[in-house]
Amino acid sequence: MQYRRFGRTELQMPVFSCGGMRYQYKWQDLPFIEIPQDNQRNLEATIRKSLEVGINHIETARFYGSSEMQLGKILPTLPREKLIVQTKVPPEEDSKKFLATFEKSLSYLQLDYVDLLGIHGINTPELLEYTIRPGGCLDIARKLQAQGKVRYIGFSTHGATDLIIKTIETNQFDYVNLHWYWIYQKNWDAITSATRHDMGVFIISPSNKGGMLYQPSQKLVDLCQPLSPIIFNNLFCLSHPQIHTLSVGADKPSDFDEHLKTLPLLSQAEELLPPIIERLENEAKRVLGEEWLNTWEKGLPNYEDTPGNINIPMILWLRNLALAYDLVEYGKMRYNLLGNGGHWFPGQKADKLADFDLTNCLKNSPHRDKIPEFLAQTESLLGGQEVKRLSQTN
């Protein structure tokens, strides 16, 4: 395993982290007696494999269902000083509720403290305000820190880049969990800001949100040769020293295996990445056209300023990926979250496109005449049954 200094925390963070949202039994709390023994054995085997390969950062959250409770059966049996344990608690308007939720997390984990507490999901200006205002959630977190129940405080976000930067610029957080990988590089300015503030940088779900790379299209497999899509994406992310760790959402012990193949290649990133990136970029130009690739985002309205709250930028981005790289299954998964993702994945899909006139909101786009057709095309290609966020499933 390789380790990187996790910003101002000074923790030596493994470049891969063991994310805790896949190996748990259910997405709801339930009595431990109802958790099947084989599921608990699998979780414990996954944690032991994680530690065996040097991944000592165990990351979970209060609303990852039974994850914390199940971890609480194994973490206290392990050498505490060798673990970096992180949980996350969402901000609340009533900070007392935030405190109660954290105390429940600590109780489930059966630990005296967590190394990292993340304010989970600062995705809107309102949630940022709940966090940083006097008497808000951050003040509660600071008290927990003074009590020795929390070592370092960070935040996770699925929000817009400008909101992430605004949160970072408060200089109140030690680290950030955010999205950034090959197919989605918009948050680089936020990473740059985090680096200026000497914050740890944790990348959320690069293999899942980064294209469902554990079941890649054949086209993506071919374009990424001689690497697998997972290894290419890992290497792309970790070739940037500003990034400290990538989450591996392991479902079973063997899920670490492909990721570990990245480690001996890190010193070769400058040789391995450019030809793959060139192939990927050239294919996108061939399929979509260079003019579209260079200008498709110009003048697009925010979903909040669009009739029907249609999330035009997100829909066109998913269309680009589906057409250029055959990421159709990934596109379906993300597209059908629109309308059901709340502030985690906001806006609506284009299934009711005929009900709205987009002329005015698209007036600043150089592609205003084509976009309605492209939105309809995306609905036809990716639309279907609504998809729920994992935390809404059984």
Give a topology summary:
Elements: E1 3-5, E2 12-14, E3 16-19, H1 37-52, E4 57-59, H2 67-71, E5 84-89, H3 95-109, E6 114-120, H4 125-132, H5 137-146, E7 150-156, H6 161-168, E8 175-178, H7 188-196, E9 200-203, H8 218-223, H9 229-238, E10 245-248, H10 257-260, H11 269-288, H12 290-295, H13 312-325, H14 328-335, H15 371-382
Parallel strand pairs: 3-4, 3-10, 4-5, 5-6, 6-7, 7-8, 8-9, 9-10
Antiparallel strand pairs: 1-2
Helix pairs in contact: 6-7, 11-13, 13-14, 13-15
CATH superfamily of the largest domain: NADP-dependent oxidoreductase domain
Strand segment count? 10
The largest sheet is: 8 strands, parallel, barrel
CATH topology of the largest domain: TIM Barrel
Q: What would the principal axes of the Cα set say about the shape? A: globular
Count, helices: 15
Task: Kindly estimate the percentage of residues that lie in beta strands according to DSSP.
Answer: 5-15%
Rg over alpha carbons: 21 Å
Question: Low-confidence parts, pLDDT < 50 over ≥5 residues?
Answer: 388-394
N-to-C terminal Cα separation, in Å?
35 Å
Number of domains: 2
In order across it, which strands form the biggest sheet?
3-4-5-6-7-8-9-10
- What class would the helix/strand composition place it in? alpha/beta
CATH architecture of the largest domain: Alpha-Beta Barrel
- Name of the CATH class of the largest domain: Alpha Beta
Domain NADP-dependent oxidoreductase: 39-160
Organism: Cyanobacterium aponinum (strain PCC 10605)
InterPro entries: AKR (IPR020471), AKR2_Oxidoreductase (IPR053135), NAD(P)_OxRdtase_dom_sf (IPR036812), NADP_OxRdtase_dom (IPR023210)
Pfam family, one: Aldo_ket_red
